[in-house]
Design goal:
Elements: H1 3-14, H2 19-31, H3 33-38, H4 40-44, H5 47-51, E1 56-65, E2 71-82, E3 88-94, H6 100-116, E4 122-128, H7 137-151, E5 160-163, H8 170-184, H9 204-221, E6 231-235, H10 239-250, E7 254-260, E8 263-266, H11 273-282, H12 290-293, E9 298-300, E10 313-316, H13 325-333, E11 338-340, H14 349-357, E12 361-363, H15 365-368, H16 370-385, H17 391-415, H18 422-440
Helix pairs in contact: 1-2, 2-6, 2-18, 6-18, 7-8, 9-10, 9-16, 9-17, 13-14, 16-17, 17-18
The chain binds NADPH dihydro-nicotinamide-adenine-dinucleotide phosphate and (2Z)-2-iminopentanedioic acid (2IT).
Residues 95, 97, 164-167, 169, 208, 236-241, 260-262, 303, 317-319, 342-344, 369, 372 line the site of NADPH dihydro-nicotinamide-adenine-dinucleotide phosphate.
Length: 444
Protein backbone atom coordinates (compact mmCIF):
# COMPACT_ATOMS: atom_id res chain seq x y z
CA UNK A 1 0.00 0.00 0.00
CA UNK A 2 1.49 3.39 -0.90
CA UNK A 3 1.91 6.35 1.45
CA UNK A 4 -1.30 8.17 0.42
CA UNK A 5 -3.48 5.06 0.63
CA UNK A 6 -2.07 4.18 4.04
CA UNK A 7 -2.66 7.68 5.46
CA UNK A 8 -6.19 7.81 4.02
CA UNK A 9 -7.03 4.40 5.46
CA UNK A 10 -5.76 5.39 8.89
CA UNK A 11 -7.63 8.68 8.68
CA UNK A 12 -10.91 6.86 7.99
CA UNK A 13 -10.31 4.37 10.80
CA UNK A 14 -9.41 7.08 13.31
CA UNK A 15 -12.20 9.47 12.29
CA UNK A 16 -15.33 7.37 11.65
CA UNK A 17 -18.56 9.11 10.75
CA UNK A 18 -16.89 12.15 9.17
CA UNK A 19 -17.79 11.73 5.47
CA UNK A 20 -17.17 15.35 4.43
CA UNK A 21 -13.71 15.30 6.03
CA UNK A 22 -12.90 12.00 4.32
CA UNK A 23 -14.06 13.46 1.00
CA UNK A 24 -11.92 16.61 1.26
CA UNK A 25 -8.85 14.70 2.45
CA UNK A 26 -9.19 12.08 -0.29
CA UNK A 27 -9.43 14.73 -3.00
CA UNK A 28 -6.33 16.56 -1.77
CA UNK A 29 -4.14 13.55 -0.96
CA UNK A 30 -4.98 11.78 -4.22
CA UNK A 31 -3.64 14.84 -6.07
CA UNK A 32 -0.34 14.76 -4.19
CA UNK A 33 0.90 11.31 -5.25
CA UNK A 34 3.16 12.70 -7.95
CA UNK A 35 4.84 15.11 -5.49
CA UNK A 36 5.15 12.55 -2.70
CA UNK A 37 6.65 9.88 -4.96
CA UNK A 38 9.50 12.19 -5.96
CA UNK A 39 10.11 13.46 -2.36
CA UNK A 40 10.52 10.50 0.02
CA UNK A 41 11.62 12.97 2.73
CA UNK A 42 7.96 13.88 3.28
CA UNK A 43 7.03 10.32 4.24
CA UNK A 44 10.08 10.03 6.48
CA UNK A 45 8.99 13.19 8.29
CA UNK A 46 5.42 11.87 8.73
CA UNK A 47 4.25 14.96 6.93
CA UNK A 48 0.86 13.71 5.73
CA UNK A 49 0.03 12.11 9.08
CA UNK A 50 0.65 15.50 10.71
CA UNK A 51 -1.16 17.44 7.97
CA UNK A 52 -4.44 15.53 8.37
CA UNK A 53 -4.50 15.81 12.17
CA UNK A 54 -5.64 19.25 13.40
CA UNK A 55 -3.17 20.97 15.72
CA UNK A 56 -6.05 21.60 18.11
CA UNK A 57 -9.85 21.14 18.26
CA UNK A 58 -11.96 23.19 20.64
CA UNK A 59 -15.54 22.08 21.31
CA UNK A 60 -17.76 23.88 23.75
CA UNK A 61 -21.26 24.44 25.07
CA UNK A 62 -23.08 27.59 23.91
CA UNK A 63 -26.05 28.25 26.22
CA UNK A 64 -28.36 31.17 25.45
CA UNK A 65 -31.83 32.45 26.35
CA UNK A 66 -34.46 33.23 23.70
CA UNK A 67 -36.89 36.17 23.76
CA UNK A 68 -39.46 34.07 25.65
CA UNK A 69 -36.99 33.21 28.42
CA UNK A 70 -36.43 29.64 27.21
CA UNK A 71 -32.90 28.24 27.57
CA UNK A 72 -31.22 26.67 24.52
CA UNK A 73 -27.89 24.89 24.22
CA UNK A 74 -25.88 24.67 21.00
CA UNK A 75 -22.55 23.12 20.14
CA UNK A 76 -19.59 25.43 19.40
CA UNK A 77 -16.48 24.44 17.46
CA UNK A 78 -13.12 25.82 16.43
CA UNK A 79 -10.70 23.59 14.55
CA UNK A 80 -7.19 25.09 14.54
CA UNK A 81 -5.87 22.93 11.74
CA UNK A 82 -2.48 24.21 10.68
CA UNK A 83 -0.37 27.22 11.66
CA UNK A 84 2.78 26.45 9.62
CA UNK A 85 2.58 29.57 7.47
CA UNK A 86 0.66 31.99 9.70
CA UNK A 87 -1.99 32.35 12.42
CA UNK A 88 -5.06 30.16 12.04
CA UNK A 89 -7.50 31.92 9.68
CA UNK A 90 -10.93 30.91 8.48
CA UNK A 91 -14.61 31.58 8.91
CA UNK A 92 -17.31 30.69 11.41
CA UNK A 93 -20.42 28.92 10.11
CA UNK A 94 -23.77 29.05 11.92
CA UNK A 95 -26.11 26.48 10.35
CA UNK A 96 -28.11 23.56 11.82
CA UNK A 97 -26.14 21.10 9.67
CA UNK A 98 -22.81 22.02 11.32
CA UNK A 99 -20.95 19.13 12.95
CA UNK A 100 -17.32 18.15 13.48
CA UNK A 101 -17.03 16.51 10.05
CA UNK A 102 -18.13 19.69 8.28
CA UNK A 103 -15.87 21.98 10.32
CA UNK A 104 -12.91 19.64 9.76
CA UNK A 105 -13.46 19.47 6.00
CA UNK A 106 -13.70 23.26 5.86
CA UNK A 107 -10.61 23.72 8.06
CA UNK A 108 -8.61 21.25 5.99
CA UNK A 109 -9.53 22.99 2.70
CA UNK A 110 -8.68 26.32 4.28
CA UNK A 111 -5.02 25.29 4.79
CA UNK A 112 -4.41 24.98 1.04
CA UNK A 113 -6.67 27.88 0.07
CA UNK A 114 -4.86 30.24 2.42
CA UNK A 115 -1.51 29.04 1.10
CA UNK A 116 -2.65 29.77 -2.48
CA UNK A 117 -3.40 33.40 -1.60
CA UNK A 118 0.39 33.84 -1.09
CA UNK A 119 -0.37 35.68 2.18
CA UNK A 120 0.84 34.53 5.64
CA UNK A 121 -2.24 32.76 7.00
CA UNK A 122 -2.68 29.26 8.43
CA UNK A 123 -5.88 27.20 8.26
CA UNK A 124 -8.79 27.06 10.71
CA UNK A 125 -12.58 26.96 10.79
CA UNK A 126 -15.32 27.06 13.38
CA UNK A 127 -19.00 27.48 13.94
CA UNK A 128 -22.11 26.16 15.58
CA UNK A 129 -25.23 24.15 14.85
CA UNK A 130 -27.21 27.28 15.82
CA UNK A 131 -29.83 28.27 13.22
CA UNK A 132 -29.97 32.08 12.80
CA UNK A 133 -33.12 31.85 10.62
CA UNK A 134 -36.14 33.43 12.24
CA UNK A 135 -34.22 34.67 15.30
CA UNK A 136 -34.55 38.27 16.51
CA UNK A 137 -31.53 40.58 16.53
CA UNK A 138 -31.45 40.30 20.32
CA UNK A 139 -31.40 36.51 20.17
CA UNK A 140 -28.56 36.63 17.62
CA UNK A 141 -26.68 39.03 19.90
CA UNK A 142 -27.08 36.85 22.99
CA UNK A 143 -26.00 33.78 21.06
CA UNK A 144 -22.90 35.54 19.65
CA UNK A 145 -21.97 36.85 23.10
CA UNK A 146 -22.24 33.38 24.62
CA UNK A 147 -20.21 31.86 21.75
CA UNK A 148 -17.45 34.45 22.19
CA UNK A 149 -17.41 34.13 25.98
CA UNK A 150 -15.81 30.72 25.42
CA UNK A 151 -13.93 31.24 22.15
CA UNK A 152 -12.11 34.47 23.09
CA UNK A 153 -9.43 32.64 25.10
CA UNK A 154 -8.33 30.71 22.01
CA UNK A 155 -8.14 33.70 19.65
CA UNK A 156 -5.77 36.60 19.05
CA UNK A 157 -4.62 38.73 16.12
CA UNK A 158 -1.41 36.64 15.90
CA UNK A 159 -3.03 33.37 17.04
CA UNK A 160 -6.39 32.76 15.39
CA UNK A 161 -8.50 35.24 13.43
CA UNK A 162 -12.04 34.06 12.58
CA UNK A 163 -14.39 35.67 10.01
CA UNK A 164 -17.80 34.97 8.47
CA UNK A 165 -19.18 32.04 6.50
CA UNK A 166 -22.72 30.66 6.07
CA UNK A 167 -25.02 32.37 8.58
CA UNK A 168 -22.29 34.72 9.83
CA UNK A 169 -22.22 38.15 8.18
CA UNK A 170 -21.66 41.73 9.26
CA UNK A 171 -24.28 41.67 12.01
CA UNK A 172 -22.85 38.58 13.70
CA UNK A 173 -19.21 39.73 13.35
CA UNK A 174 -20.22 43.00 15.06
CA UNK A 175 -21.74 41.19 18.07
CA UNK A 176 -18.80 38.76 18.27
CA UNK A 177 -16.26 41.59 18.12
CA UNK A 178 -18.09 43.65 20.73
CA UNK A 179 -17.97 40.78 23.21
CA UNK A 180 -14.32 39.96 22.45
CA UNK A 181 -13.30 43.58 23.04
CA UNK A 182 -15.28 43.74 26.25
CA UNK A 183 -13.71 40.59 27.72
CA UNK A 184 -10.13 41.15 26.51
CA UNK A 185 -10.09 44.96 26.76
CA UNK A 186 -8.33 45.05 23.39
CA UNK A 187 -9.32 46.63 20.07
CA UNK A 188 -7.28 44.52 17.66
CA UNK A 189 -7.73 42.79 14.33
CA UNK A 190 -8.96 39.59 15.91
CA UNK A 191 -11.90 39.07 13.55
CA UNK A 192 -12.19 40.07 9.89
CA UNK A 193 -15.24 41.17 7.98
CA UNK A 194 -15.69 43.93 10.59
CA UNK A 195 -17.79 47.02 9.87
CA UNK A 196 -15.97 49.96 8.33
CA UNK A 197 -16.37 52.11 11.45
CA UNK A 198 -14.47 49.64 13.68
CA UNK A 199 -11.55 48.31 11.67
CA UNK A 200 -13.08 46.56 8.66
CA UNK A 201 -11.69 46.75 5.14
CA UNK A 202 -13.45 48.22 2.15
CA UNK A 203 -14.29 45.54 -0.42
CA UNK A 204 -14.25 42.63 2.09
CA UNK A 205 -18.02 42.26 1.65
CA UNK A 206 -17.67 41.99 -2.12
CA UNK A 207 -14.36 40.09 -2.12
CA UNK A 208 -15.35 36.43 -2.40
CA UNK A 209 -17.87 36.96 -5.19
CA UNK A 210 -15.73 39.48 -7.06
CA UNK A 211 -12.67 37.24 -6.69
CA UNK A 212 -14.61 34.28 -8.06
CA UNK A 213 -15.45 36.23 -11.19
CA UNK A 214 -11.91 37.66 -11.54
CA UNK A 215 -10.33 34.19 -11.52
CA UNK A 216 -13.03 32.87 -13.85
CA UNK A 217 -12.39 35.75 -16.27
CA UNK A 218 -8.65 34.95 -16.18
CA UNK A 219 -9.39 31.27 -16.90
CA UNK A 220 -11.64 32.27 -19.81
CA UNK A 221 -8.99 34.72 -21.09
CA UNK A 222 -6.50 31.86 -21.23
CA UNK A 223 -8.84 30.30 -23.80
CA UNK A 224 -9.37 33.63 -25.62
CA UNK A 225 -12.84 33.96 -24.09
CA UNK A 226 -14.57 36.16 -21.48
CA UNK A 227 -17.82 36.86 -19.59
CA UNK A 228 -19.34 39.22 -22.16
CA UNK A 229 -22.65 37.91 -23.46
CA UNK A 230 -22.46 34.68 -21.44
CA UNK A 231 -25.43 33.09 -19.69
CA UNK A 232 -24.65 32.44 -16.04
CA UNK A 233 -26.42 30.41 -13.34
CA UNK A 234 -25.50 31.06 -9.69
CA UNK A 235 -26.74 28.92 -6.81
CA UNK A 236 -27.29 30.54 -3.43
CA UNK A 237 -28.22 34.16 -2.80
CA UNK A 238 -25.99 34.97 0.14
CA UNK A 239 -22.81 36.99 0.41
CA UNK A 240 -20.81 35.07 -2.20
CA UNK A 241 -23.62 34.64 -4.73
CA UNK A 242 -24.75 38.29 -4.63
CA UNK A 243 -21.34 39.79 -5.37
CA UNK A 244 -20.49 37.13 -7.95
CA UNK A 245 -23.72 38.14 -9.69
CA UNK A 246 -22.84 41.85 -9.49
CA UNK A 247 -19.35 41.40 -11.00
CA UNK A 248 -20.51 38.94 -13.68
CA UNK A 249 -23.14 41.46 -14.81
CA UNK A 250 -20.55 44.27 -14.78
CA UNK A 251 -18.46 42.17 -17.16
CA UNK A 252 -21.41 41.86 -19.54
CA UNK A 253 -22.89 38.50 -18.57
CA UNK A 254 -26.57 37.76 -18.07
CA UNK A 255 -27.37 35.98 -14.78
CA UNK A 256 -30.45 33.84 -15.33
CA UNK A 257 -31.05 32.21 -11.96
CA UNK A 258 -30.24 32.26 -8.23
CA UNK A 259 -31.48 30.16 -5.31
CA UNK A 260 -31.78 29.60 -1.59
CA UNK A 261 -32.55 26.41 0.30
CA UNK A 262 -36.27 26.81 -0.50
CA UNK A 263 -35.87 26.81 -4.30
CA UNK A 264 -34.64 28.84 -7.27
CA UNK A 265 -35.85 31.78 -9.30
CA UNK A 266 -35.42 31.96 -13.06
CA UNK A 267 -35.53 35.34 -14.80
CA UNK A 268 -34.99 35.09 -18.53
CA UNK A 269 -34.42 38.86 -18.74
CA UNK A 270 -31.51 38.66 -16.32
CA UNK A 271 -31.68 38.87 -12.52
CA UNK A 272 -32.50 42.28 -11.04
CA UNK A 273 -29.85 42.34 -8.30
CA UNK A 274 -31.39 45.30 -6.44
CA UNK A 275 -34.45 43.14 -5.81
CA UNK A 276 -32.30 40.24 -4.57
CA UNK A 277 -30.28 42.53 -2.28
CA UNK A 278 -33.46 44.00 -0.82
CA UNK A 279 -34.89 40.52 -0.13
CA UNK A 280 -31.68 38.99 1.24
CA UNK A 281 -29.62 41.80 2.75
CA UNK A 282 -32.39 44.07 4.03
CA UNK A 283 -35.47 41.92 4.68
CA UNK A 284 -33.67 38.58 5.29
CA UNK A 285 -36.61 36.95 3.49
CA UNK A 286 -37.06 33.95 1.17
CA UNK A 287 -36.18 34.04 -2.52
CA UNK A 288 -39.72 33.41 -3.80
CA UNK A 289 -40.41 37.07 -2.87
CA UNK A 290 -38.59 37.87 -6.13
CA UNK A 291 -41.61 36.93 -8.25
CA UNK A 292 -43.73 39.52 -6.40
CA UNK A 293 -41.37 42.26 -7.60
CA UNK A 294 -40.71 40.68 -11.02
CA UNK A 295 -43.90 38.82 -12.04
CA UNK A 296 -42.37 37.54 -15.30
CA UNK A 297 -39.84 35.50 -13.32
CA UNK A 298 -40.50 31.92 -12.22
CA UNK A 299 -40.01 30.28 -8.79
CA UNK A 300 -39.30 26.55 -8.60
CA UNK A 301 -39.44 25.09 -5.07
CA UNK A 302 -36.47 22.70 -5.56
CA UNK A 303 -33.03 24.35 -5.35
CA UNK A 304 -31.19 21.32 -6.76
CA UNK A 305 -32.96 21.71 -10.12
CA UNK A 306 -31.26 25.05 -10.80
CA UNK A 307 -28.59 23.15 -12.78
CA UNK A 308 -31.15 22.09 -15.39
CA UNK A 309 -31.13 25.66 -16.77
CA UNK A 310 -29.08 25.99 -19.95
CA UNK A 311 -26.02 28.18 -19.32
CA UNK A 312 -22.40 28.82 -20.37
CA UNK A 313 -21.04 29.37 -16.89
CA UNK A 314 -22.16 27.73 -13.63
CA UNK A 315 -21.13 29.23 -10.27
CA UNK A 316 -22.21 27.05 -7.31
CA UNK A 317 -22.18 29.48 -4.35
CA UNK A 318 -24.43 27.82 -1.72
CA UNK A 319 -23.05 24.81 0.14
CA UNK A 320 -21.13 21.50 0.01
CA UNK A 321 -22.19 18.69 -2.35
CA UNK A 322 -24.98 20.73 -3.97
CA UNK A 323 -23.95 19.82 -7.54
CA UNK A 324 -24.00 16.07 -8.16
CA UNK A 325 -23.23 13.82 -11.13
CA UNK A 326 -26.78 13.96 -12.47
CA UNK A 327 -26.66 17.78 -12.51
CA UNK A 328 -23.19 17.74 -14.07
CA UNK A 329 -24.48 15.57 -16.92
CA UNK A 330 -27.29 18.04 -17.67
CA UNK A 331 -24.91 21.02 -17.54
CA UNK A 332 -22.50 19.33 -19.95
CA UNK A 333 -25.34 18.34 -22.29
CA UNK A 334 -26.44 21.99 -22.24
CA UNK A 335 -22.96 23.16 -23.28
CA UNK A 336 -21.48 24.62 -20.07
CA UNK A 337 -17.88 25.80 -20.65
CA UNK A 338 -16.79 26.83 -17.14
CA UNK A 339 -17.71 25.74 -13.61
CA UNK A 340 -16.11 27.73 -10.78
CA UNK A 341 -16.80 26.94 -7.13
CA UNK A 342 -17.80 29.95 -5.03
CA UNK A 343 -18.85 27.64 -2.20
CA UNK A 344 -16.54 25.17 -0.46
CA UNK A 345 -16.70 21.71 -2.07
CA UNK A 346 -20.11 22.27 -3.75
CA UNK A 347 -19.34 19.73 -6.47
CA UNK A 348 -19.29 16.02 -5.66
CA UNK A 349 -16.15 14.10 -6.67
CA UNK A 350 -17.86 12.18 -9.49
CA UNK A 351 -19.41 15.39 -10.85
CA UNK A 352 -15.97 17.07 -10.83
CA UNK A 353 -14.48 14.17 -12.75
CA UNK A 354 -17.34 14.28 -15.26
CA UNK A 355 -16.69 17.98 -15.97
CA UNK A 356 -12.96 17.36 -16.41
CA UNK A 357 -13.50 14.32 -18.65
CA UNK A 358 -15.83 16.36 -20.84
CA UNK A 359 -13.54 19.32 -21.42
CA UNK A 360 -15.27 21.76 -19.05
CA UNK A 361 -12.89 24.19 -17.31
CA UNK A 362 -13.32 23.45 -13.61
CA UNK A 363 -11.96 25.81 -10.93
CA UNK A 364 -12.00 24.25 -7.44
CA UNK A 365 -13.18 26.29 -4.44
CA UNK A 366 -9.82 26.47 -2.71
CA UNK A 367 -8.61 28.56 -5.65
CA UNK A 368 -11.83 30.12 -6.92
CA UNK A 369 -13.24 31.42 -3.62
CA UNK A 370 -9.89 32.39 -2.06
CA UNK A 371 -10.58 36.10 -2.68
CA UNK A 372 -12.58 36.32 0.54
CA UNK A 373 -9.89 35.08 2.87
CA UNK A 374 -7.21 36.92 0.86
CA UNK A 375 -9.04 40.18 1.50
CA UNK A 376 -9.39 39.18 5.15
CA UNK A 377 -5.59 38.99 5.23
CA UNK A 378 -5.49 42.45 3.66
CA UNK A 379 -7.84 43.59 6.44
CA UNK A 380 -5.37 42.15 8.99
CA UNK A 381 -2.53 44.07 7.34
CA UNK A 382 -4.54 47.30 7.44
CA UNK A 383 -5.50 46.72 11.11
CA UNK A 384 -1.88 46.17 12.13
CA UNK A 385 -0.67 49.26 10.31
CA UNK A 386 -3.68 51.33 11.47
CA UNK A 387 -3.93 52.76 7.96
CA UNK A 388 -6.90 51.89 5.78
CA UNK A 389 -6.89 51.63 2.00
CA UNK A 390 -9.33 52.87 -0.65
CA UNK A 391 -11.84 50.50 -2.24
CA UNK A 392 -9.88 50.75 -5.49
CA UNK A 393 -6.63 49.70 -3.84
CA UNK A 394 -8.13 46.68 -2.09
CA UNK A 395 -10.03 45.67 -5.23
CA UNK A 396 -6.92 45.97 -7.36
CA UNK A 397 -4.87 43.86 -4.90
CA UNK A 398 -7.66 41.29 -4.99
CA UNK A 399 -7.57 41.17 -8.80
CA UNK A 400 -3.80 40.63 -8.77
CA UNK A 401 -4.12 37.87 -6.18
CA UNK A 402 -6.81 36.03 -8.17
CA UNK A 403 -4.90 36.32 -11.45
CA UNK A 404 -1.78 34.99 -9.72
CA UNK A 405 -3.69 32.09 -8.22
CA UNK A 406 -4.90 31.09 -11.68
CA UNK A 407 -1.39 31.32 -13.12
CA UNK A 408 0.08 29.30 -10.26
CA UNK A 409 -2.46 26.48 -10.41
CA UNK A 410 -2.25 26.42 -14.21
CA UNK A 411 1.53 26.18 -14.17
CA UNK A 412 1.53 23.53 -11.40
CA UNK A 413 -0.93 21.46 -13.46
CA UNK A 414 1.44 21.66 -16.42
CA UNK A 415 4.65 21.08 -14.43
CA UNK A 416 3.34 17.86 -12.90
CA UNK A 417 1.88 16.51 -16.13
CA UNK A 418 -1.84 17.22 -15.65
CA UNK A 419 -2.33 20.26 -17.87
CA UNK A 420 -5.74 21.87 -17.39
CA UNK A 421 -6.51 19.85 -14.25
CA UNK A 422 -6.87 22.78 -11.86
CA UNK A 423 -7.90 20.50 -8.98
CA UNK A 424 -4.49 18.84 -9.03
CA UNK A 425 -2.78 22.16 -9.80
CA UNK A 426 -4.41 23.89 -6.80
CA UNK A 427 -3.78 21.02 -4.40
CA UNK A 428 -0.11 20.75 -5.33
CA UNK A 429 0.56 24.50 -5.40
CA UNK A 430 -1.23 24.98 -2.07
CA UNK A 431 0.50 21.98 -0.48
CA UNK A 432 4.10 22.82 -1.42
CA UNK A 433 4.35 26.03 0.59
CA UNK A 434 2.79 24.44 3.68
CA UNK A 435 4.97 21.34 3.34
CA UNK A 436 8.10 23.43 2.99
CA UNK A 437 7.24 25.41 6.15
CA UNK A 438 6.43 22.23 8.09
CA UNK A 439 9.68 20.55 7.04
CA UNK A 440 11.67 23.62 8.11
CA UNK A 441 9.99 23.75 11.52
CA UNK A 442 10.74 20.16 12.55
CA UNK A 443 8.38 17.53 13.95
CA UNK A 444 5.78 19.72 15.67
P1 LIG B 1 -24.59 33.06 3.29
O1 LIG B 1 -25.08 32.59 4.58
O2 LIG B 1 -24.47 34.52 3.02
O3 LIG B 1 -25.47 32.43 2.10
C1 LIG B 1 -25.61 31.05 1.96
C2 LIG B 1 -26.52 30.76 0.80
O4 LIG B 1 -26.48 29.37 0.50
C3 LIG B 1 -27.96 31.09 1.10
O5 LIG B 1 -28.61 31.44 -0.10
C4 LIG B 1 -28.47 29.77 1.64
O6 LIG B 1 -29.88 29.60 1.54
C5 LIG B 1 -27.75 28.78 0.76
N1 LIG B 1 -27.57 27.52 1.49
C6 LIG B 1 -26.87 27.35 2.63
N2 LIG B 1 -26.95 26.08 3.07
C7 LIG B 1 -27.72 25.46 2.20
C8 LIG B 1 -28.17 24.13 2.11
N3 LIG B 1 -27.83 23.18 3.03
N4 LIG B 1 -28.97 23.82 1.06
C9 LIG B 1 -29.29 24.76 0.14
N5 LIG B 1 -28.90 26.04 0.18
C10 LIG B 1 -28.12 26.38 1.19
O7 LIG B 1 -23.17 32.34 3.09
P2 LIG B 1 -21.98 32.72 2.10
O8 LIG B 1 -22.49 33.29 0.85
O9 LIG B 1 -20.97 33.46 2.90
O10 LIG B 1 -21.36 31.27 1.83
C11 LIG B 1 -21.75 30.47 0.73
C12 LIG B 1 -20.67 29.45 0.44
O11 LIG B 1 -19.45 30.13 0.12
C13 LIG B 1 -20.32 28.51 1.59
O12 LIG B 1 -19.94 27.24 1.06
C14 LIG B 1 -19.10 29.17 2.21
O13 LIG B 1 -18.31 28.23 2.91
C15 LIG B 1 -18.39 29.67 0.96
N6 LIG B 1 -17.43 30.75 1.14
C16 LIG B 1 -17.76 31.92 1.75
C17 LIG B 1 -16.84 32.93 1.87
C18 LIG B 1 -17.17 34.25 2.45
O14 LIG B 1 -16.31 35.15 2.44
N7 LIG B 1 -18.38 34.48 2.93
C19 LIG B 1 -15.45 32.76 1.40
C20 LIG B 1 -15.22 31.52 0.70
C21 LIG B 1 -16.17 30.56 0.60
P3 LIG B 1 -30.79 29.75 2.85
O15 LIG B 1 -30.74 31.20 3.21
O16 LIG B 1 -32.12 29.27 2.43
O17 LIG B 1 -30.16 28.88 3.91
O1 LIG C 1 -14.33 29.76 3.40
C1 LIG C 1 -13.73 30.86 3.52
O2 LIG C 1 -12.65 31.06 2.96
C2 LIG C 1 -14.36 31.90 4.33
N1 LIG C 1 -15.46 31.69 4.83
C3 LIG C 1 -13.66 33.20 4.57
C4 LIG C 1 -12.66 33.07 5.68
C5 LIG C 1 -11.98 34.35 6.12
O3 LIG C 1 -11.22 34.25 7.09
O4 LIG C 1 -12.19 35.41 5.53
Amino acid sequence: MDYVDRVLQELKEKNPGQPEFHQAATEVLDSLRVVLDSNPAYEKAGLLERLVEPERIIMFRVPWVDDNGKVHVNKGYRVQFNSAIGPYKGGLRFHPSVNLSIIKFLGFEQIFKNSLTSLPIGGGKGGSDFDPKGKSDNEIMRFCQSFMTELYRHMGSDTDVPAGDIGVGGREIGFLFGQYKRIQNEHTGVLTGRGLSYGGSLARTEATGFGLVYISQEALNSKCNNFAGKKVVISGSGNVAIYACQKAMQLGAKVLAMSDSSGYIYDENGINLDVIKDIKEVKRARINEYVKAVPTAKFVPDHSKIWTIKCDIALPCATQNELDLESAKVLVKNGVILVAEGANMPTTMDATKYFQDNGVMFLPGKAANAGGVATSALEMAQSSSRIFWSFEKVDSELQHIMINIFRNIDSASKKYGYEGNYVIGANIAGFLKVADAMMAQGVV
